[in-house]
């Protein structure tokens, strides 16, 4: 039987701690399988029974051959009663054992299939949930292509590992043990010794050479992930590529990555061929020695023709799984590596986690307060300095400032995507770190500056604000966001697909979907992060009046670039360099004739019509 000439996905680089990591991976996987322990035990029983029947087949075949030899036939002919009773009985036993092998093997797969699929499902769900629980920092730093490939490989590797071990390696070990036992008990020790030494040399050679090949295989793995990451990154930035006519540049970059992958794959394939040649040589020597001893035994009269058939059948039964042992070993090592990388994602530290005694935020109006808040995304780069302000329950506070002054960081901290470096943020007097993240975020609605939509319908993206909302509620939110008339003009209406990240909609249309989504959620705290920045002046004025009505009774934080949209705020904060440099009402800030007044004058000048 010919082995695949294509090397499987790469195995990990050998290291002193590799065995330890493999053990840890199996230990982490075991509870998911042992949850179905009765199915596991029944499957193992079927496995042992199938291999016992498989090993018994050559024994029956030997007796059948011996019964049909000339000497045995002469003895049998002397018996007048039931001359063919013994051969017919052996034939029936032979057929029964053959069928039993297949039956028990299929029963094992039927019993164990639920264990495998349920383990894959549970682990996949836990990884998915954990990734959503990780901090925003993790998702800003991750590479989508490499991450999705790790998850894909990990879930696929669970089924592969179980298949290779339960359906290939473990049955082979059971069969080897049975064959060695029969050879040692029924024949001279040389047969068991030759078989054992052949197996030991084969396994040692396979493990040693495969571990030597791991560096090449690891390189293939890394280059494969790198090429996939580059391709996905380029496709996600499709518009940017088109803007600058860089299709050729992106193709060359991708091809360069694939060329490196090709060279590494070719080197890995050459080393695989060397390994296969060595394995075939060891097996050939072992089988030749076994048949030599059997032939000598028959020639000397110590063994029958049935014995040489038995030895040959045993060798064939061992040769087939041994022929694939190297491939299985590499696949198991690769599966362990892939599962390890997926489990490593599950063990990634949750930068923002609920306290053990975190409590649920009570329903009702909310007062939000920032108290001497200091924060930096990196220790060496502080963003906020002693930020201190209060948004009364039902009040409206606006924050303005130049780009990079820390305005949007306030929203991220309030949502607790990050924890403050020092100081604290409270809602109704309670530090938000003492609240469950679920209840905290459930009380806040946001219209972000950069709206990203799901690749689904407009209805789905609006309803995402409250997934239990009715179609009437969705339409009402759409009307409030001045979106309904636009949607009704579309051929598919609310069923219109928005495309990847909402690319089929304009910036203003995406922002109106985001506004409708936030309005549908109807939380006690609202954040408008430059919510109308992508809208034209006419639409902005229409939506702005609607937002003002919606914001009544809600605690509202408005992060704005256009000062005309926040003139009626209860308090306006002017930020510069991460600090609040001015605060007051619109009129008070103009009277100060400071930074806000300068910004107001500059925007007024920019908006004057050109004559």
What is the topology?
Layout: H1 18-34, H2 37-67, H3 70-77, H4 85-133, H5 136-141, H6 144-186, H7 189-236, H8 238-243, H9 247-299, H10 305-323, H11 325-346, E1 368-375, E2 384-391, E3 396-401, H12 407-414, E4 422-427, E5 430-431, H13 437-442, E6 444-447, H14 458-463, H15 471-480, H16 484-488, H17 507-521, E7 525-529, H18 537-551, E8 555-559, E9 571-576, E10 579-584, H19 586-592, H20 595-607
Parallel strand pairs: 3-8, 3-9, 6-7, 7-8
Antiparallel strand pairs: 1-2, 1-4, 4-5, 9-10
Description:
This protein has 611 residues and is α/β, with parallel strands linked by helices. It folds into 2 domains: 19-346, ABC transporter transmembrane region fold, CATH 1.20.1560.10; 368-607, P-loop containing nucleotide triphosphate hydrolases (Rossmann fold). The chain is 63% helix and 9% strand. It is built from 20 helices and 10 strands. It has helices at residues 18-34, 37-67, 70-77, 85-133, 136-141, 144-186, 189-236, 238-243, 247-299, 305-323, 325-346, 407-414, 437-442, 458-463, 471-480, 484-488, 507-521, 537-551, 586-592, 595-607, and strands at residues 368-375, 384-391, 396-401, 422-427, 430-431, 444-447, 525-529, 555-559, 571-576, 579-584. The strands form 2 sheets. A 6-stranded mixed sheet has the order 6-7-8-3-9-10. A hairpin with a 2-residue loop joins strand 4 (422-427) and strand 5 (430-431). Helix 2 (37-67) packs across helix 6 (144-186) and helix 15 packs across helix 17 (507-521). The radius of gyration is 36 Å and the shape is elongated.
């Amino acid at each position: 039987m010919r082995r695949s000439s294509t090397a499987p996905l790469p195995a990990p680089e050998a290291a002193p701690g590799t065995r330890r990591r493999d053990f840890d991976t199996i230990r982490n996987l075991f509870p998911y399988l042992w949850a179905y322990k009765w199915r596991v035990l029944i499957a193992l029983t079927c496995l042992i029974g199938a291999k016992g029947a498989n090993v018994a087949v050559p024994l029956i075949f030997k007796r059948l051959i011996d019964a049909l030899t000339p000497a045995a036939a002469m003895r049998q002919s002397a018996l007048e009663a039931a001359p063919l009773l013994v051969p017919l009985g052996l034939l029936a036993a032979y057929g029964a054992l053959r069928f039993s092998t297949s039956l028990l093997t299929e029963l094992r797969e039927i019993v164990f299939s639920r264990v495998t699929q349920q383990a894959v499902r549970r682990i996949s769900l836990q990884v998915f949930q954990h990734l959503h629980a990780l901090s925003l920092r993790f998702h800003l730093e991750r590479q989508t292509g490499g991450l999705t490939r790790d998850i894909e490989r990990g879930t696929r590797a669970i089924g592969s590992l179980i298949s290779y071990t339960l359906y290939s390696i473990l049955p082979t070990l059971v069969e080897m043990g049975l064959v060695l036992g029969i050879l040692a008990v029924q024949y001279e020790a040389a047969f068991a010794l030759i078989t054992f030494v052949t197996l030991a040399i084969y396994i040692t050679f396979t493990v040693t050479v495969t571990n030597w090949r791991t560096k090449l295989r690891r390189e293939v793995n890394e280059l494969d992930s790198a090429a996939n990451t580059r391709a996905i990154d380029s496709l996600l930035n499709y518009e940017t590529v088109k803007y600058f006519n860089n299709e050729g540049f992106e193709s060359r970059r991708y091809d360069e990555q694939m060329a490196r992958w090709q060279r590494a794959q070719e080197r890995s394939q050459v080393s695989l061929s060397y390994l296969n040649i060595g394995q075939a040589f060891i097996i050939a020597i072992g089988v030749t020695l076994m048949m030599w001893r059997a032939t000598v035994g028959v020639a000397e009269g110590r063994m029958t023709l049935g014995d040489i058939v038995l030895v040959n059948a045993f060798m064939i039964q061992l040769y087939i799984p041994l022929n694939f042992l190297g491939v299985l070993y590499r696949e198991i090592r690769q599966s362990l590596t892939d599962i390890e990388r997926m489990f490593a994602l599950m063990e990634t530290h949750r930068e923002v986690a609920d306290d053990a005694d975190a409590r649920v935020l009570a329903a009702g109006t909310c007062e939000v307060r920032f108290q001497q808040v200091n924060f930096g995304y990196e220790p060496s780069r502080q963003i906020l300095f002693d930020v201190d302000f209060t948004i009364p329950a039902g009040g409206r506070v606006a924050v303005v400032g130049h780009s990079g002054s820390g305005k949007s960081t306030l929203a991220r901290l309030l949502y607790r995507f990050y924890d403050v470096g020092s100081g604290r943020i409270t809602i109704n007097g309670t530090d938000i770190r003492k609240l469950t993240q679920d209840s905290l975020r459930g009380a806040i609605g946001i219209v972000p500056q950069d709206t990203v939509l799901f690749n689904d319908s407009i209805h789905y993206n609006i309803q995402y604000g409250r997934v239990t909302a009715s179609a009437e509620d969705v339409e009402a939110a759409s009307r409030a966001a001045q979106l309904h008339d636009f949607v009704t003009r579309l051929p598919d209406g609310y069923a219109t697909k928005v495309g990847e990240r909402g690319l089929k909609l304009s910036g203003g249309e995406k922002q109106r979907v985001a506004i409708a989504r936030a309005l549908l959620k109807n939380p006690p705290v609202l954040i408008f992060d430059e919510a109308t920045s992508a809208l034209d002046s006419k639409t902005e004025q229409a939506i702005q009046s609607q937002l003002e009505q919606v914001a009544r009774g809600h605690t509202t934080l408005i992060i704005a670039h256009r000062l005309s949209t926040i003139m009626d705020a209860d308090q306006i904060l002017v930020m510069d360099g991460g600090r609040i440099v001015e605060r007051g009402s619109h009129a008070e800030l103009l009277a100060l004739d400071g930074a806000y007044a300068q910004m107001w004058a500059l925007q007024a000048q920019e908006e004057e019509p050109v004559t």
